[in-house]
Design a protein that fits this description.
It is built from 16 helices and 14 strands. With 393 residues, the chain is α/β, with parallel strands linked by helices.
Length: 393
């Protein structure tokens, strides 16, 4: 069974990945099992003996021969996808693989399952409010937010990149090309290109708020990376290429199991579709029930209540009756392409007080002292939020 291997050509990588996404569900499961076995064997198996060579001290503490623990792997856990992954790994017998999460970023129902399943909590380096106040709002997409961040914070070093964002023209490093996808879509240049008006003779608007794509770095990525470095451990992630965006590009290029110079990680669900994941979630829930784990954990289900339950529609397709996707409650990536009720509408239904905080008063303008929130951002990009959405069809 061929693995999804690293590629150098994005088009070829996507063709390869799309072909594997068409595999039968059972074939994908065997593929995922093989990936986990190979990854565990490569990272852990080659030096299992080191785990038995602890240096014990008189106070019953111990240290490792080379000053750091032997290599290990861990599961990075968030919502339903990675909770399912953790159960899948447990079902394969890997009970020595720990699980970690920045649980405080998740919905309360997700946090409850994390605690019950013994997921280790990792603290973020900044609070959500600190991220918004110090760095800016995560809006549109990670890629576009990064470009807006550069336009709002011009330096000599990023001048060439800013020129490409404004015009699509690249410099020497980009081969002096024109009309590249580096240019921000005109719709968003009109709203966020204002800081470059003097340079280009344009009349674009300047957003009355900061924008950044660095939220995940301080909230999740660096805390988890530092935990992994301290524990000499490498992650297994529940990412799927079917989610699209930058994630799909990276997964297509780097494959399922990736062993780079600075990055080592496994993504055994890369070729899974949403239907595959929900089907496996149901199977893992039954496995947990049969093994007595749900009772031991004090849970009725491995599906957090924010998702509702997993059901089938009239065509037989699986879906969650509540949230389809979850994430940080103050994240705005993709909000402009969601229909109503969108993620902030659903937050309003779950927790009116939290919704009011994020919408109206999570940020203070350092120059004027004015207090505002996501409401200003959503109004600016044309997303309705303050009026209640109409009834579901």
């Amino acid at each position: 069974m061929a693995h999804l291997a690293p590629h150098t050509d994005l088009a070829a990588a996507r063709v390869d990945m799309h072909a594997k996404q068409q595999w039968a569900y059972e074939t994908k499961l065997r593929h995922a099992k093989r990936l986990i076995k190979d990854y565990y064997g490569k990272v852990v198996g080659e030096q299992l003996g080191d785990r038995e060579k602890l240096i014990w001290h008189e106070d019953d503490s111990y240290s490792y021969p080379n000053g750091k623990p032997p290599k290990g792997v861990h599961v990075s856990v968030g919502g339903l996808d990675s909770i399912t992954l953790l159960c899948f790994i447990r079902s394969l017998g890997y009970w020595d693989v720990p699980a970690i999460s920045v649980s405080s970023l998740e919905d309360g129902s997700i946090q409850r399952i994390h605690r019950a399943m013994g997921v280790q909590n990792v603290m973020p380096y900044k609070s959500k409010a600190e991220v918004l106040n110090e760095l800016g709002f995560p809006v549109l997409s990670k890629e576009k937010a990064g470009k807006i961040d550069l336009l709002q914070n011009p330096t000599e070093k990023n001048a060439t990149v800013r020129h490409a964002i404004m015009t699509g023209e690249t410099g020497k490093q980009g081969g002096y090309r024109k009309g590249t996808r580096m240019k921000m879509p005109q719709k968003w240049l009109a709203l966020f290109g204002g800081p470059e008006n003097e340079r280009y003779g344009t009349n674009y608007k300047t957003a009355p708020f900061k924008v950044s794509n660095k939220c995940c770095y301080y909230l999740k990525e660096k805390p988890c990376d530092d935990w992994a470095r301290t524990h000499n451990s490498y992650p297994i992630l529940g990412l799927m290429a079917s989610e699209g965006g930058q994630r799909e590009k990276a997964l297509a290029m780097h494959g399922c199991n990736y062993y780079g110079k600075t990055t080592v990680r496994s993504c055994p669900f890369v070729i899974f579709t949403r239907q595959d994941l929900l089907r496996l979630a149901l199977e893992m829930e039954q496995w947990c029930r049969d093994e007595g784990l749900l009772d031991a954990w004090g849970l009725e289900s491995i599906v957090p209540s924010i998702y509702g339950t997993i059901e089938r529609d009239e065509l037989g397709n699986l879906y969650t009756t509540g949230a389809q996707r979850t994430g940080c409650s103050m994240c705005g990536f993709g909000i402009h392409i969601e229909g109503r009720p969108h993620r902030f509408d659903r937050l309003r239904e779950r927790n009116q007080k939290e919704w009011e905080y994020w919408m109206y008063r999570c940020v203070t303008d350092t120059e004027t002292g004015e207090v505002y929130g996501w409401g200003r951002v959503l109004d600016y990009i044309g997303v309705e939020w303050e009026t209640l959405p109409g009834p579901k069809p």
